[in-house]
Design brief:
Length: about 400
Amino acid sequence: MEFEYDDSETATELVERTKAFMDEVVIPREREDFLGGGEMTDELIAELRAEAKERDLYAPQIPEEYGGLGLDFRDVLPMFEQAGRSLLGPPALRVDAPDEGNIHTIEMVGTDEQKEEWLVPLVDGEYTSAFSMTEPMQGGGSDPKMIKTTAEKDDDEWVINGHKWWTSQGDEADILLVMARTNQDAHPYEGCSFFLVPPETDGVEFPRDVPYLGDSWGISHPEVIYDDVRVPEENLLGPKDEGFGIAQRRLGPARLTHCMRFCGMAKRSINVAKSYVSEREAFGSDLSEKQSLRFTVARAETRLHAVRTQVRHAARQIAAGKEARIEVAMCKVFAANVVNEIIDDMLQLCGGNGMARDLPLSYFYEDVRGFRIFDGADEVHLRSIAREAFEDVDDEEMQTVTRF
Ligand SMILES: Cc1cc2nc3c(=O)[nH]c(=O)nc-3n(C[C@H](O)[C@H](O)[C@H](O)COP(=O)(O)OP(=O)(O)OC[C@H]3O[C@@H](n4cnc5c(N)ncnc54)[C@H](O)[C@@H]3O)c2cc1C
């Protein structure tokens, strides 16, 4: 089931070529080398990246000067759905989190020297990066105002002290983007800054790689201690004390790209389930002939279409120079719940096979759960949406009631 979304010619052409790459290269390799308990090895990803480069599909969202295709955000967004149809797709096309968002951040606010040093190897896949913001119990989590990590100036160096966790792929990364408080007197939503910290710097420690749901193939999520970590002044990333603004500018587009990647996962799950129930018989007919099951698929397609439409609307707002904070929050919370429900339902439709590692559904099921938590938990987005919703309470609506 396909729809037209009035995407640009460039976007449509990119989607078609990405779909061909996924169908001809990525998904066959996924079946051969990954499903059934295989590993997402560096060699496998390198081979897929070489083919993506060959097909002129690699890193479409990155400016050409850093090794990408230099396409507009809205033109690239629909191809994220195609990439998301396999867990191997996003790293193959270098549209994978967290590097995609980190690359965007450095490109957005980095100095020329920082861009020169980090962007080309990051885009090329030679380097990886990590975003180090969330902190353990007494620090910043859903409420970033609570960030406790500090960075203090000592001559021409910054000295960072703090404790982070959930720094995705931090212990494998070549560069850490660390958020720390640089101004204790500022409003709690201000006064934080970002720093580029090479993980081999004295005082950076990874005491524990937290085991988590999906860790059999996914990336690591270590705790990180920053103990008197010294970095030079030039490692400040973006303007001092503007860390929250930078994080917002990173997270807006990154949340939309996440929505689209997960749409791809949901769409593939629907296709796998449709194929299973069309072959499987029970109680005298193909499962695909049972009305309740057909309705489950129909509901999934309907809700997925709503997510895609909503994401495109938010992307249009961003392209028009608007912050689109509420629109993005709505996309994030709606998409996360829709794709979680779809993948759960489609796994159910495949019976015991849905749980097997032979199909991608069990991997998707484990991977998608975090989407309701990272990049802001459901409740955090609902809180912002609710605040906005209650801005325009209309007293006149109660006139009939108050008259009596
Ligand atoms: C797979 C994964 C990858 C991640 N990668 C990164 C990363 O690379 N870098 C990084 O810095 N962080 C990362 N995180 C951390 C993530 O951003 C946080 O888990 C998330 O912001 C929630 O913070 P917390 O875990 O501290 O939850 P808490 O702040 O402890 O909140 C717990 C729960 O309380 C509820 N809640 C919170 N606020 C409210 C409210 N106002 N009203 C009602 N309910 C509320 C929510 O349900 C929330 O899930 C990752 C997390 C996961 C799961």
